[in-house]
Amino acid sequence: MGSKGKEKELVSNRKAFHDYEILETYEAGIQLLGTEIASLKNHGGALRDAYVDMRGSAPWLINASIAPYSFGNQLNHEERRPRKLLMHKREIVALERAVSEKGLTLIPLAIYLNSRGFAKLRLAIARGKKQYDVRAAVKERDQKRALLRGED
Known about the structure:
The protein has about 150 residues and is of the alpha+beta class. It contains four helices and nine strands; from the N terminus they run E-H-E-H-E-E-E-E-E-H-E-E-H.
């Protein structure tokens, strides 16, 4: 990935770390329209219910919400249209292999601008947590916080 200091995060999926166990992350370019990038720069997006689907031989970002651009005219974009992701062939093959494995899914983590100003999507191969796993993770986090505060 690029240097972290020069990235500007536009949209993040904070719920993903709560609901999923992140196994591996990838970076992908996104095919966006002009009004979409303008809307994202105004923080008009959400990845809450979004996922990545393999259609044909390419990954697609599905159900990601990019709000209509407020200064857009009749050429404004559709809010939840599927968006093609741009990746190297070897990365796509790795994603296809992971998705074919039972229990693994592709989830978007964040949309950000890289150091060159291009919109990128950070996506992850993840395994869904069971409800008891989520509760255990919350309990463990609370115990660590209490330990740092010096409580017993």
